[in-house]
């Protein structure tokens, strides 16, 4: 395999370590562009070079100048990867300019924006006959009152633009049990001048009812690599990202995803989630990330292929050589799984014995690697400093709290 072409990862944050390891272990020169110099991910030994540049905080013109100079210093036209919604949309909106210096998939105009937006995704599902959770997009408190009068509970109150609500209120979604709670939280969280909340049916079932598909689609929207898996635990518990996941084949999820992406003429890396609705027997689409996702190293086949490697091979003109789906392979996000496990234990969902046995089959973690210990050491150092400050300021709390997660995210 030819690995002389560099890979540039913008705003790698918490994902940077796993991307650097995946491609760096093959010998690919890895260049990380971090928005925060203190990110533990920046400590990975697999970065060839790292830079500090915040694409979102800088003007497009300054970012173009920075990225073009970075590419000119490379020995070959680099492969470009984004790791969050903001940088994904930055690349999509400025693809014509960035393509002069970088290799990345050529998406249909406006498609990443539609898929990243919960409203846009819902509309695409309706247009293409893809099952999804029933959703209402209120424009005012009057619309919420109308739902309270005739709608079912409990529901999910979620952000349309998840990053905007995360930045403003420190959360992305919540379960709402009744009309009074819905009225209260809508009033607290909504921005009336720019409505950003939606009311979505709560599909019954625990974390294991949530299925994921990770894949890579070429310029003809053919899936060159794709795998499915289940969430076993989430952080925050019940509604968040995967903290413990397992690979399991699911042809219904794969077939549904491939048909949808072919209809959309989608190209590139895809991270998509569904929940099985026992009431209807359908897999209902929950969210789409038109980019690499945090759990991508769960989805590794017997040939060692993952979505980052598939994209690198395809964009550098090499064959994507795949192996077999490894059923039972597990992946975990160590710190977040400790936090979510405590919640599941407290709620009587898991015993200590069952918790211990749940780690059988774990092949990889987000942070720990014997050949690359520095990111984990840096993360632990950050955690110790964080809790020390809280303790001496008189605000110490037990456990790995959601405020800790937000503080950690700020270093990414």
Secondary structure blueprint with pairings:
Blueprint: E1 7-10, H1 16-24, E2 30-34, E3 49-52, H2 60-72, E4 79-82, H3 85-93, H4 95-98, H5 111-116, H6 118-128, E5 135-136, H7 141-150, E6 155-159, H8 162-169, E7 173-176, H9 179-189, E8 197-201, E9 210-217, E10 223-235, E11 241-247, H10 251-264, E12 268-277, E13 282-289, H11 307-315, E14 330-332, H12 334-346, H13 352-357, E15 362-365, H14 374-392, H15 402-410
Structure characterization notes:
By secondary structure, the protein is an alpha/beta fold. The C terminus is likely disordered. It contains 15 helices and 15 strands. Strands 13-12-9-10-11-14-15 form a 7-stranded mixed sheet. Strands 3-2-1-4 form a 4-stranded parallel sheet. 37% of the residues lie in helices and 21% in strands. It folds into 4 domains: 105 residues, 3-Layer(aba) Sandwich (Rossmann fold); 68 residues, 2-Layer Sandwich (Dna Ligase, domain 1), CATH 3.30.1490.20; 159 residues, 2-Layer Sandwich (D-amino Acid Aminotransferase, Chain A, domain 1), CATH 3.30.470; 37 residues, no CATH class.
